[in-house]
Amino acid sequence: MKKIFLPLFAVVALSVSIISCKSSGPRPVAEKFLNSLMHMNFEEAKSVSDSTTKQLLEQGESFMSMVPDSVKAQSKNIKVNIKDVKEEGDKATVTFNTSKLADIQTLNLVKVNGKWLVKMSKNEQAPPMADEPMPASGADAAMDTSNVPPMDTTAVPAK
């Protein structure tokens, strides 16, 4: 019995150590961030974000009060599919798509004090949370010229 138990224990211990090492890599961090963001759980997304990304998430969170409840409910069903993870030293790039948006998106991560964190800048667009853009409102709607015909800018001779 001892002969079977010892190798079995060694296999289990090795498996646990491998899994625990993998759980802190860029892939699980990206999965946690993206799933949290898609499901509008900003606090959990912030837990794996650098300081700049946390600020951006706080700004996005403030706009969520304007999102209809139906969109919030639909967001709970979005699935994230990690396509690839490229790790280069203390930086990683994760490519992914979602069940709502088939286009491949990228997410950048950095290793800070031995911990992988999502790094987004103000110049980067946050991963889209739905397959349709939100309707324009307020000043954005007033400036929307997508369905205005072009003006004729040829000069009309004065009489």
User: How many strand elements?
Assistant: 4
Just name the CATH architecture of the domain at 23-122: Roll
Radius of gyration: 23 Å
Q: Pick out the low-confidence regions.
A: 5-22, 130-148
Spatial strand arrangement across the major sheet: 1-2-3-4
**What would you call the shape?**
globular
Give the strand content: 15-25%
Major sheet, described briefly? 4 strands, antiparallel
- Oligomeric composition of the shown chains: single chain
**Which structural class fits the helix and strand makeup?**
alpha+beta
Output the number of helix runs: 6
Distance, first to last CA = 110 Å
- What is the highest CATH level, the class of the domain at 23-122? Alpha Beta
Helix and strand string, N-terminal first?
HHHHHEEEEH
Helix content: 40-55%
CATH topology of the domain at 23-122: Nuclear Transport Factor 2, Chain: A
> How confident overall, as mean pLDDT?
76
